[in-house]
Design a protein that fits this description.
Length: 284
């Protein structure tokens, strides 16, 4: 039966700039429909300089909850009433819950990454030596979650070294057990032979771009590669890693896992396993 939007329908959303590429409406609406909930999830393209107006509007309209994507994950933090410990640690919010008019910010990217690593690469992270490429919002969530999950060492490599340094300075106080270091792209080759897991948290690969200077041949044979980019099913990095004989996968599993967690924050219900990924596979 076709679902109807009624006077009682609750609105959920995703805000970003741009937002048209987002796959989240497909999987979130599939979950609402499968559960027979009177809810709808819509994309809102919010220009970078209009974020505070948008949040005021969401409050006024009583939007029940929303996801936050590039470039608003950090900027939205000061506009909310409360932040979860994960959001504070990561310094980024990707999920907002409107609890009776009070806006609470969460970060489900980090836990989503850990879930995907376990599901897709059988990788529990504990005791592992990890290299994270990138130092943006996604990398922040990743480093915080990897540290919490007991990684032995996390090394961040970023095009702009200063951004990586800022990430480390802000996260270190929250991750006292973790050996967290920053290296330049030139130093990366020295580290690769002592790496168990390589995570791409840059946007490289979305348009088919290759990494220059990343020598996958230097990784140990048992190393694993996780690419957060999920546009192409086999991103250039995933393809190169598989050709090298390494276990590798793209970021679709993380997208699903962070979306399942966001849904649970909004509704208290965890969608059935496979529901969101099946919806994504059906609608290309
Ligand atoms: P962001 O905050 O804009 O950060 C982008 C990162 O990519 C920065 O570290 C940036 O380096 C780096 N970068 C961009 N262009 C580059 C280039 N040409 N060469 C080298 N580095 C480059 O974005 P984000 O939110 O962290 O997202 C990063 C990626 O993760 C995106 O592709 C996003 O779609 C993906 N992601 C996936 C999921 C998932 O569920 N699978 C969740 C979140 C994000 P600089 O600091 O030097 O600019």
């Amino acid at each position: 039966m076709k679902e109807l939007i009624r006077g009682t329908t609750k609105i959920y959303a995703i805000i970003g700039w741009p937002v048209a590429h987002s796959r989240s409406p497909v999987m979130q609406n599939a979950a609402f429909q499968a559960l027979g909930m009177d809810c709808v999830y819509v994309p809102f393209a919010v220009e970078p300089e209009r974020l505070s107006e948008a949040v005021l509007g969401m409050r006024a309209l009583g939007v029940a909850g929303w996801n936050v994507t590039i470039p608003h994950k950090t900027g939205i933090m000061s506009l909310l009433d409360e932040l979860s410990p994960e959001a504070v640690r990561a310094g980024a919010v990707n999920t907002v819950v409107n609890r009776g008019g009070r806006l609470i910010g969460y970060n489900t990217d980090g836990t989503g990454l850990l879930t995907a690593l376990l599901r897709d690469l059988d990788c529990s992270v504990k005791g592992e030596r990890v290299v994270v490429l990138g130092a943006g919002g996604a990398a922040r969530g990743a480093v915080a979650a990897l540290g919490e999950a007991g990684a032995a060492r996390v090394t961040v490599v970023n095009r702009t070294l200063e951004t990586a340094r800022r990430l480390a300075d802000e996260l270190r106080p929250h991750l006292s057990e973790l050996e967290l270091e920053i290296v330049s792209s030139e130093e990366l080759s020295r580290l690769l032979p002592q790496t168990d897991l390589l995570v791409n948290a840059t946007s490289l690969g979305l348009k088919g771009e290759e990494f220059s200077g990343l020598e996958l041949a230097l990784l140990p044979d048992a190393a694993k590669v996780y690419d957060m980019v999920y546009g192409p099913r086999e991103t250039p990095l995933v393809l190169a890693a598989r050709q090298r004989g390494l276990a590798a996968c793209n970021g679709l599993g993380m997208l699903v896992a962070q979306g399942e967690l966001a849904f649970c924050h909004w509704t208290g219900i965890t969608p059935a396993p496979g529901l969101m990924s099946t919806a994504l596979a059906e609608v290309r």
